[in-house]
Amino acid sequence: MSSQTLSRRDSPLPARTAGIVIGAWTALLWVIEIVDQLTREALEQFGIHSWQVASLPSMFVSPLIHDDWAHLAANTVPFAVLGFLVLLGGLARALWATMVTVVVSGLFAWLLSPPNTVTIGASGLVFGWLTYLMVRAVFTRHTVQILIAVGVLVLYGSVLWGVLPTQPGVSWQAHLGGAVGGALAAWLLHGRDRAAGVGR
Fold first, then answer.
1. Which of 80, 102, 118, 127 could bridge across to 47 with cysteines, CB 3.0–4.6 Å?
2. What confidence score (pLDDT) does residue 7 get?
3. At 198, is the pLDDT very low, low, confident or very high (cuts 50, 70, 90)?
4. Which of 64, 65, 140, 130 has the alpha carbon at shortest distance from 97?
5. If DSSP codes are grouped into helix, strand and coil, which group holds residue 119?
6. Domain boundaries, the chain
7. Is the distance from CB of 118 to CB of 52 less than 8 angstroms?
8. CB 19 within 8 A of CB 84
9. Residue 137: how many other CB atoms lie within 10 Å
């Protein structure tokens, strides 16, 4: 089933349901970090190892793994807030937006990072959700979604500087890929509907 078909059939999630889903997902990140710390960071081997073909599947688990508590704490609030807002638009659309973002962010990290670099963390997904919410509003022109886009731009727009190589040890490649992936997901889910005259 295509992303367009899923988008048209999807229904918005109640705020309570979206909150439960993103709350459970956020809690999972913390459980995984507890396990990682107890195993002396053994889980970090499942990050994306640049230029290693066997590591490509790791793009689907690397957003769940963090380097330390500070890394996880920095991602937790934007992850929960932006994930909640994306989920409000519908579970199927949220899953599509997340999957597209994860793949594009992972490919950017895998291809553009220096050899022997290991990339972990949810920040690429956070960047994707952020650009998805903003670009979605451009395509749908729905009042509520425009207000959401303005709100997240005010709250988190400054983090978009993270797509530039300005801070050592931070994967701008994953950030850039996430931002591109989020915009691509918005186009796949909403842009072509707008071109065909179908509003969401």
1. 118
2. 53
3. very low
4. 130
5. strand
6. 3-193
7. no
8. yes
9. 22
Q: Read off the amino acid at residue 99.
A: M
Query: pLDDT tens-digit profile of 84-110?
Result: 999 999 999 999 999 999 999 999 999
CA dihedral 107, 122, 182, 166 (to 10 degrees): -80
Give the residue from 76, 74, 79 showing the smallest Cα distance to 152: 79
Query: Which residue is associated with the tokens 């895998």?
Result: 110
The length of the chain is: 200
Distance, CA of 27 to CA of 169 (rounded, Å) = 25
Taking every pair of C-alpha atoms in the chain, what is the biggest distance, in angstroms? 54
CATH 1.20.1540.10 fits domain 3-193: yes
Q: Return d(Cα 163, Cα 109) in angstroms, integer.
A: 12
- CA separation for the pair 66, 70 (Å, rounded): 9
